[in-house]
Specification:
GlnD_Uridyltrans_N, single chain, about 50% helix, alpha+beta, CBS domain, four-stranded antiparallel β-sheet, CBS_domain-containing, globular, repeat, DUF294_put_nucleoTrafse_sb-bd, about 600 residues
Length: about 600
Amino acid sequence: MDIERFLTDCPPFDDLTEQQRTWSVNQMQSTYMNADNCNEIMRDCSPALFIVRSGVFDLKGKDGTLVERLEQGDLFGYPSLLSGRAIVNTLQCIEDGIVYVLPQVAFDKLRNQSRAFERYFINAHGERLLTERRGKTAGYDDYDWTEQRVEDVIQRAPISLASDTTIQNAAQCMSENGISSILVVDSDQLVGILTDRDIRNRVVAQGLGFNVTVAAVMTHLPEFVFAHRSLLDALTTMTANNVHHLPVVDEQLRPVGMITATDLIKQQRSEPVYLISSIYKSTTRAQLVEEAQKIPQYLNSFALRVKQTAILGRLMASLTDAMTRQFIKLFEAENGAAPARYCWLAFGSQGREDQTLSSDQDNGLLLADGLTESQLDWFRRLGEYVCEGLHDCGVPLCPGNIMASNPECRGTQQQWLARFERWTTHPTPKALMYCQIFFDSRAVAGQQKMFNQFREAVADIGKNEFFIGNLALLVNRISVPLGLFNRFRTEDVKQGERIDIKRYGIALINDIVRLYSLHQGLTEPATAQRIERLQNSRLISERDRQSLLEAWQFLTQLRLDHQLRVWHTDEPKNAIDPDSLSTLSRRQLKTAFKIIKQAQQGVGLKFSRQGY
């Protein structure tokens, strides 16, 4: 049967037995959706699972923002099936098509019959993913704290209050229970979270009265984790969203407790906080190098369990930051405290926090004005000491010598800004190459206020339209590896036909997003953060912005998965064989390249007229 053949390549129906798939087909109805009827059909058929067979639809949130673009094989409607809530999203038909509808009764029966089927939707609930679900990795049987369920380590029953509670009563409740955060619950549903920091920053610091309600100052619709999920999922959510208190809910989204960063630290044995802590506890250069040698093996084992390997880029940057700070501390222990104000700068991938094990060093020093020769010599020796130490720890030296050990990468704000001015007003190919590295910067150690002033000034320089126009021309000279009829264009290397997804994918998205960020005067270095900040930009539509983010997330995860598989081989670390991918991943890769190509054309039309 045609529908059944289609479902065999459609996760999670591919996890069902043949008998279960045949049964599910008999429960489905097929409907033709167009601009006139799509929302009516979705409303009349709900609650149900919808499977796109053909056509293209945009799923819009309650406020009209794009949630996800739906194409062949994509599913929607499952959050309502899991939570029991009414569907509030709407559909916008881009291309008419066929959609299969599976009623809730059939959906629930399949969930009860197949754990894999149920797990797929639990994992996907509340997420917008371009990649297919990561399955369990065979061969990893050792016990690890991250495999524990969140519900097994919750310390107490949920303490909550209603959103119309006054801040004074909320503070009294938190004090009486000895807690620093509290759940806000209305009608048995989580609506927010209130923390000590919220009270300090949003009430006391703002001079608000203590009779103001919790609803006015709480964090609305906070991130959460399901009670049956692993502690690793909680850690991933906390790290990705920079939060330290995470509500725990059941499958009906009812609060069952709270888990904190402290709870996770108590459980840890050989995980991120422990490894970073070991780096900071190193009292000698030899100890620090010894701890750093554990990083590749650790990242490999950690990646086997993490659900979103993109977190490894941030983790690797955090580890490099920790090593850098500890080398600075060791140098100061031997040579005395810094003789003047300074800031250690991270550029490139470390600056963007998307490092991999193969990323080399890109760093520099921002120095105070009026330094003496002896003070300059202190910073010269610091740069050499740290860069050599990082190299010993496995972070390769930069082939282009963009390191604090190079006198060209040590300078005052005036000297650095003069260099940026020269690059932007005379955008030679070499200058443009430098800009693609140096405009992605972040403070790692030293004076943050000093860096903030510097970064604001750099952002002003980066708005130069002539410079942006030439960057746009450079971006458009790189051809996306899609040929006639959207076939992959591969390169013949020693290991066979490959596509460099860093050069033709990730780096291109970084370049495109950097262009928009320069034009807007943004100071964030991370690509995902930049895309988020572009949300209200008039230059890029919400759909294109979301598409770029999803493409970047997919390619980043694809590259990290590939690197971890081939790390101890002579296989290229950034180039993949498209024939080795699943059908779904190949389709997603083509979609990502099409998104990049359209984005290239977009920046070309918007900016390149201003260049040479």
